[in-house]
Design brief:
By secondary structure, the chain is α/β, with parallel strands linked by helices. It is 45% helix and 14% strand. The strands form 2 sheets. Strands 5-4-1-6-7-8 form a 6-stranded parallel sheet, sandwiched between helices.
């Protein structure tokens, strides 16, 4: 293996503390805007999100903020509350080990351009030789286009690269479809479908796979 690519959310870090901070604000604003109670506002917002699951729009909070005319911006929220982006404790040690071992490192994310800011605020952007967002190719995982663009950027063939992510449908299926080795990081011990080449619970386990 020459290169290791990572997904961001649910793989390197979690943005859930930030989401849990701003969603109540969203429900309150939407409640006042639409003249409905807070619970109805919550249901309406979440229903819109889940109806678009795994689509191009689903990966961008700003799409939903604009859809409801809320005047919020996700990049500004991240900059205001950077400490709400929680890097998993196994992330930095693993990235440092991979760098020391000489692997090329990349990120492949279906999120928009603010994903670069997210990595920067989390102190992770410096570890990666390439960061590919949906904006670079106007495509999201599992479309081959986004994986092939990342591989080309690091000048590696699919068979020389590993993809690590928490989504079976996006990260694992997408990587295997172009000939990469797929590693499913299953932090919560969810039932699997034997789709991935490897299943791990922590990033530390990459040492055994690559060792």
């Amino acid at each position: 293996m020459e290169a290791v690519f990572f997904d961001i959310d649910g793989t390197l870090l979690t943005e859930m503390p930030l989401i849990e901070l701003f969603l109540p604000q969203v429900y309150e604003m939407l409640s006042k805007k639409l003249g409905i109670d807070r619970e109805s506002a919550r249901e309406r917002f979440l229903r819109e999100i889940f109806s678009r699951r795994d689509t191009y729009d689903w990966h961008d909070w700003n799409f939903f903020f604009r859809l409801f005319g809320l005047g919020m911006d996700y990049a500004e929220l991240m900059k205001r509350y950077p400490y709400k982006l929680r890097v998993y404790p196994d992330t930095v040690p693993t990235l440092e080990w991979l760098k020391d071992e000489g692997y090329k490192l990349g990120v492949i994310t279906s999120g928009p351009e603010y994903q670069r800011l997210k990595l920067e605020l989390a102190g992770l952007s410096g570890y990666f030789d390439v960061i590919v967002t949906r904006e670079d190719v106007k495509a999201i995982k599992p479309e081959p286009k986004i994986f092939l663009h990342a591989l080309e950027a690091l000048n590696v063939r699919p068979g020389e690269a590993l993809m690590v992510g928490d989504s079976l449908s996006q990260d694992v299926y997408g990587a295997k479809n172009v000939g990469m080795t797929a590693v499913w990081i299953n932090r919560d011990g969810e039932p699997g479908y034997h789709m991935a080449d490897y299943e791990i619970r922590t990033l530390h386990e990459l040492r055994k796979i690559l060792g």
